[in-house]
Amino acid sequence: GDTPVAEITKTHILQMRVEIAKCKGRGGNDTLSAKTINRALQLLNQALADAADQYGFTNPAERIKRLKQRRIDILPFSFAETRLIISTIREDYRLYLIVRFFTGLRTGELHGL
Questions:
Q1: Is the pTM of this model over 0.85?
Q2: Average pLDDT per run of 10 along the chain, which is 113 residues long?
Q3: Is DNA-binding one of the keywords (predicted)?
Q4: How far apart are CA 12 and CA 66, in angstroms?
């Protein structure tokens, strides 16, 4: 817009966040997620921080709280489901999956073994 960077206030940023929250997401049906809005504000915060350092003003985005994101419940396989998967998988993958299911190793950690 026409507002000089040094004159942007916390109110401007909060108003922008409200407007962004009204935007449609990729599918066109839902609005943008809190995660997407937070990423946009993080980018703005970084840009304003650089400008504030260079031109000597206080970053108005510095203390704006992030939107809360919905937690996704992770439903692990039951022991019966795990046994079924292990019993039906190809033999050459069986040991890999047993280690994967019962150790909690991350993919990169397991592949590093």
A1: no
A2: 90 94 82 92 96 95 90 87 94 93 90 87
A3: yes
A4: 16
